[in-house]
Design goal:
The protein is α+β, with helices and mostly antiparallel strands and 794 residues long. Helix content is 71%, strand content 6%. Strand 2 and strand 3 form a beta hairpin. InterPro entries: DUF3772, MS_channel_1st, MS_channel_C, MscS-like_channel, MscS_channel_2nd.
Length: 794
């Protein structure tokens, strides 16, 4: 009996468990075989260790005394949150598995019902205890994650306050000899702290250089140097060859080459740094002082590498034809040496400043080194600006107006000059931190702007290539979507515009949320915090749903276009409906379809309609002030398509305009005149004004009427018979109703006769009248009858 029950439990879990909660059949089978065996999870010791780790981070953050000391703890808090997420992800399948097992066993039988077997009750109790343990662990992990998230927000506030304090802190001017004294003659305490730092470096060096480790250390250091030098050149050369031979000729190849150069530099540098770090820590971890210094040193190296890599990609002095920005060759050659000089100076001086900060030296010494950093970097930038200005002036003198620079280049040059003036004033007045902050922000702006410039150019050129009808991708899209070359070009421009706008938004956000020393993880978390802020949460828009919304929009538009082509070309022509009715049905289907696609897109985006009350309110105000005409025309268009007082193909006359209805759109109706020109009439006028529909009845006839004046001495009967014969003999005139001649007017100037006949359609009235008039004049001339001459004007 017990084995049969186990078999039944196993079959139920395999068949229904995975469908219920999404766990795999293998996991369920293993759980059934395990019976009441304990499941792996988070122990109380693990939770206690996580709590102690969080407490240590809080203590470290509370003891920070300057802005830079909070950068490393912020990274460790981010890692802490990732560890909690991994533990929670490991527990969720266990929770689902236990839920399935308890669901199969069912609830405890009520009183008065036959008692269940003891082994089932014991198994239920064991599973309930395990589930309670997992639920408690998940709850505790959620609490710890919330605490860590709050801690990140607190770090941001503390860093902001410390930054404001540092920027407004006044010290000695660089012109005061006492400013340089701590660097020329360090205090005993600073010397002691420097000695401790050097001692820890020697201990680490001795650990990696002890017998048995020297060979591996040499190999790792040599590999790091090779990656940093030869590896970079080799990687850049290989990526260049790939872009030349694999990328199509044109702008996409140029932008790919520029990005490849920057990526190769960054990648090889990262590999070299990881090899050096592994060489120093493969046996023993670094001390807290050295760990803090290594973290900051890594950030500095990446910043310097970005400066050199992006500069080499943009200037492209070795291959001027690959250069993306419009920079003259002399200007590019003049700027080339400054990137390496600036990066090398930053690497040396900022590393020295980070050493003093990690060792905990006096604030006077730290401020002095910061002043040196700001002064030397400012000197390099000023020299670069002066040299660039000289080259530009020489080009303008040699080439005249053709060498004028762009407005953007002028703005960049002016901002750089202004920043240098502010930094110099701050150094002279004793605000060293402010001077360093301005210079760092200028360098950060250069890295961000040049990096995103490359990405925007690459995205734009990629869109042009992807949708070009000259390439295989464009031809495939043209065949798949049934688009013309013009539509593909419009789609390319639209997609490139949206992509560049999104990258420009990220550029602005990155400029304000990052800075020199910001890690990639910090930057991404800050950007996500802004893009996924309270405004998006109120609308329930999740960034992960954006792809679903885009796919829903594209697929929906494609299906509507395909179905409309099917209606227009296959289904509606085979019905008994007239062309006007077919056109109305096709237009109505498109309008309803596009409205449904918009609703589906918003639903895929996660928008809750209960949170869109402010949009409805704004829309109602807009309708009241400026959109009422558009809404009125839209509603009138729906009435025209459903009630059909006029339809496509009707000959109408309204407000002095007469022509055939060519198309009824959502807002207006197109009327084609006899000269093939188009008049756009708002739909509301077709509903609210008097309108003459000549062809509404389906059997409308045209009336060809001519009014002629003859002299008083003619024979009226002869002229009447001539006119009637002409009308009766014309092939387009109907026999019924028969043509007739009417005596219209008698005056001293002559006799006015009006001849009238009917034709099959109002559309041929003009042509018929012209033919009749030619024939009447011909017959009158043959009979010697003249028309009355108008009286001479007074």
């Amino acid at each position: 009996m017990r084995n049969a029950l186990k078999s039944l439990l196993f079959v139920a879990l395999v068949l229904f468990g995975p469908m219920a909660v999404g766990v795999s059949a293998e996991d369920v089978a293993q759980a059934a075989d395990a019976g009441a065996a304990p499941l792996p999870g988070v122990t109380a010791e693990d939770l206690q260790a996580l709590q102690q780790r969080l407490d240590g981070l809080k203590q470290e953050i509370s003891s920070a005394s300057n802005y830079n000391q909070l950068e490393a703890p912020q990274d460790r808090v981010q890692d802490y949150i990732l560890d909690i997420d991994r533990l929670s992800a490991a527990l969720l399948p266990q929770q689902a598995q236990l839920t399935v097992q308890l669901g199969v066993l069912g609830a405890t039988p009520a009183e008065g019902v036959a008692p269940e077997q003891a082994d089932i009750a014991a198994q239920r109790a064991t599973l309930t205890a395990q589930k309670a343990k997992v639920d408690t662990a998940l709850k505790n992990l959620a609490t710890l994650k919330q605490s860590a998230t709050d801690l990140i927000n607190q770090i941001a506030g503390i860093r902001r306050n410390l930054l404001e304090s540092e920027l407004t802190l006044g010290t000695l001017s660089i012109l005061n000899p006492d400013f340089w004294a701590p660097m020329l003659e360090p205090s005993a305490d600073d010397r002691q702290r420097l000695g401790e730092f050097i001692a820890q470096v020697k201990e680490t060096g001795a650990e990696v250089w002890k017998p048995g480790q020297r060979f591996y250390t040499c190999v790792l250091v040599l590999l790091a140097l090779l990656f940093w030098t030869l590896g970079r050149r080799l990687a850049e050369r290989q990526m260049t060859q790939f872009c030349i031979h694999r990328m199509p000729e044109g702008r996409l190849r140029r932008s790919s080459l520029a990005c490849a150069s920057a990526i190769a530099t960054l990648f090889t540098t990262g590999v070299a740094l990881q090899l050096l770090y592994y060489a120093c820590t493969r046996n023993e971890p670094l001390t807290p002082m050295l760990a803090s210094f290594s973290t900051e040193f890594e950030k500095t190296v990446y910043a310097c590498v970005m400066i050199t890599g992006l500069s080499r990609a943009l200037l492209s002095t070795e291959h001027p034809s690959w250069r993306l920005p419009d920079i003259a060759d002399p200007v590019a050659s003049a700027l080339k040496p400054f990137a390496r000089l600036l990066a090398g100076t930053l690497l040396a001086l900022v590393t020295l400043s980070q050493l003093c900060t990690a060792a905990g030296m006096s604030s006077q010494l730290v401020m002095g080194i910061r002043g040196v950093v700001a002064l030397l970097v400012m000197a390099i930038i000023v020299t670069m600006l002066v040299r660039t200005g000289q080259v530009r002036n020489a080009l303008m003198a040699a080439n005249g107006p053709s060498a004028e620079i762009s407005t953007l280049a002028g703005v960049v040059y002016a901002v750089a000059c202004l920043s240098m003036v502010v930094s110099l004033i701050a150094l002279l007045t004793g605000y060293v931190s402010l001077a360093r902050f301005v210079i760092y922000e200028l360098l950060w702006s250069y890295i961000v702007l040049t990096g995103f410039y490359l990405l925007m150019q690459l995205f734009k050129d990629g869109c042009e290539f992807l949708f070009s009808p000259r390439h295989a991708s464009g031809k495939a899209l043209k065949h798949l979507l049934g688009m013309s070359d013009r539509r593909l070009d419009q789609l390319s421009i639209l997609l490139a515009g949206f992509g560049r706008a999104a990258l420009l938004l990220l550029t602005v956000i990155t400029l304000f949320v990052g800075g020199i020393g910001t890690t990639l993880g910090q930057l991404i978390s800050n950007v996500v915090a802004i893009l996924g802020g309270a405004g998006l949460r109120k609308l329930n828009i999740v960034p992960g749903h954006l792809l679903n919304a885009v796919l829903a929009l594209m697929i929906g538009i494609y299906l509507i276009r395909a179905l409309r082509r099917w209606l227009d070309n296959e289904f509606l022509p085979k019905t008994d409906m007239d062309p006007g009715m077919c056109a109305s049905l096709s237009t109505l289907f498109s309008n309803i379809g596009y409205a449904f696609v918009i609703l589906l897109t918003l639903s895929s985006l996660g928008v809750q309609w209960t949170n869109l009350a402010w949009i409805v309110s704004a829309l109602s105000v807009g309708i009241g002030f400026g959109l009422q005409e558009i809404v009125k025309n839209f509603v009138s268009g729906l009435i025209l398509l459903t009630e059909r007082p006029v339809k496509v193909g009707d000959l109408i006359s309204i407000s002095g305009v007469e022509g055939d209805i060519r198309r009824i759109n959502v807002r207006a109706t197109e009327i084609q005149l006899s000269d093939r020109s188009i008049v756009i009439v708002p739909n509301s006028q077709l509903i609210s004004q008097n309108l003459r529909n000549v062809t509404l009845g389906g059997s409308a006839q045209g009336v060809a009427t001519l009014e002629l004046m003859f002299p008083l001495d003619i024979d009226p009967e002869q002229v009447k018979n001539l006119l009637l014969d002409t009308y009766r003999e014309h092939e387009t005139l109907l026999e019924k109703p028969a043509p007739f001649v009417r005596f219209s007017k008698l005056s001293p100037d002559g006799i006015t006769l009006t001849v009238t006949g009917y034709v099959a359609s109002p559309r041929i009235v003009g042509t018929t009248k012209s033919d009749l008039l030619f024939e009447i004049l011909k017959r009158l001339g043959a009979e010697g009858i003249e028309l009355a001459k108008p009286p001479p004007s007074a």
